[in-house]
Amino acid sequence: MSETTTHLVLGTPVTMPVRVRAATAFMGMFPVPVGPAQDLVAHTGLEILQYRPGRGICTLVFVDYVDGDLGPYNEFGVCFLVRDHRSRGGGIVGDWRSLLGGQAGALIHHLPVDGDFTLAAGRGIWGFPKTLADFDADHDGTTKRGSVSADGSLIAELTVAPGIPVPGKGIAASLAAYSHLDGVTRRTTWEMNPSGVRTRLGGATLRLGTHPIADELRRLGLPRRALASSSIPELRMTFGDAAEI
């Protein structure tokens, strides 16, 4: 990661890497058919990773950024597990090797937020598809709940039940975050340092609204209940510069 690159965001310099010193998150991982999911992301040049034949993973995640270089804000992510952009046409064995070896990536497909500064920084620095939205989220209760709306319409409401404590970090310490904006696909190194991770099979319930993002997810055939879910009460992150691919 570059220690010297500086970007000007709404008149304020942002020096790389960008650090998030305190955040909390919860998420549900939903199985989706590879065909429709691949059609949805084909314009990025990336390929959906398959955890079993014909099935990929769409993760819906709520994040509360408490203390970071971009200020405090809420975020909702619609993400797909994808193959490394240098690996194409791999089979199930290769996909599982990528997952276990930390070579898989996450394509950030939608990223609503509730702050103007993080919106400008996300789009300008990394090409993240950030849009403005309204949030009502409870990260503190035993059961996590979040809803996100935009333009007066509900996008999604997610409820995550308590999971089982996971030893150690619980999730990969570093992964590739892919984005696509204005015809350009980018790759960003995203380092995570989580604590107190809890996870379980199932455990997340989804309600989709009437917003176009909800309609898109509905057409993918997301089930009401998740394949697995997780919560992270303490999360630190670092984002480096993006590279076009």
Structural notes for this entry:
The protein is an alpha+beta fold and 245 residues long. It has a single domain, classed as Acetoacetate decarboxylase-like (Beta Barrel), CATH 2.40.400.10. Helix content is 16%, strand content 52%. It contains four helices and 16 strands. It has a seven-stranded mixed beta barrel. A hairpin with a 2-residue loop joins strand 9 and strand 10.
Explain the layout of strands and helices.
Elements: E1 6-9, E2 12-15, E3 18-33, H1 34-41, E4 55-68, E5 73-82, H2 92-101, E6 105-113, H3 116-126, E7 130-132, E8 134-138, E9 144-150, E10 153-160, E11 164-165, E12 174-181, E13 184-195, E14 198-201, E15 204-208, H4 212-220, E16 228-244
Parallel strand pairs: 6-7, 6-12
Antiparallel strand pairs: 1-2, 3-4, 3-16, 4-5, 5-6, 8-9, 9-10, 10-15, 11-14, 12-13, 13-16, 14-16
